[in-house]
Design goal:
Organism: Ruminococcus albus
GO molecular function, one term: single-stranded DNA binding
CATH topology: OB fold (Dihydrolipoamide Acetyltransferase, E2P)
CATH architecture: Beta Barrel
Helix content: under 10%
Order of helices and strands: EEEEHEE
Number of domains: 1
Pfam families: SSB
Region (Disordered): 83-129
CATH class: Mainly Beta
Largest sheet: 5 strands, mixed, barrel
Number of strands: 6
Strand order of the largest sheet: 1-3-4-6-5
Radius of gyration: 16 Å
Strand content: over 45%
Distance between the termini: 13 Å
InterPro entries: NA-bd_OB-fold, Primosome_PriB/ssb, ssDNA-bd
């Protein structure tokens, strides 16, 4: 079975990192415009909640901010829960790969670009799936 999801869009806010035990977690939202339909003035926008852990979380927090364009590949997870006696669900994308589309290094962090090895180096010609 295959659970792969790819989205290109803009971050809706600056990502922030949280610590859960020994792990680092970054939650953020990507806004992705749908193609315009004939006669529509503005396209509809879909919003995707994303989570990244550890190294991916560090890279996202260090390199991206509100409005930056990213392409992410991940797996879709549906979380089911109960609130006030009502069954509910939420959908999130667990980030597996990060592709940069015009991101920039934030000035307020001490990490340098050389601190991370590019795990995707040499894979530019590989198929996405």
């Amino acid at each position: 079975m295959l659970n792969k999801f790819m989205v290109a869009g803009r971050l809706t806010a600056d990502p922030e990192i949280q610590t859960k035990g020994e792990s680092r977690l970054c939650k953020f939202t990507i806004a992705c415009d749908r193609p315009k339909r004939k006669g529509e003035e503005n396209p509809e926008t879909d919003f995707f909640t994303c989570t990244a852990w550890n190294r991916n979380a560090d890279v996202i927090v260090d390199w991206f901010g509100k409005g930056d364009m990213v392409t992410l590949v991940g797996a879709v997870h549906i979380n089911r829960y109960e609130k006030d006696g009502q069954k509910r669900s939420s959908t999130e994308v667990k980030v597996e790969e990060i592709h940069f589309n015009g991101g920039k290094k934030r000035e307020n962090t001490a990490t340098t670009a050389n601190s991370y090895e590019n795990p995707y180096a040499g894979t530019e010609d590989d198929p996405l799936f």
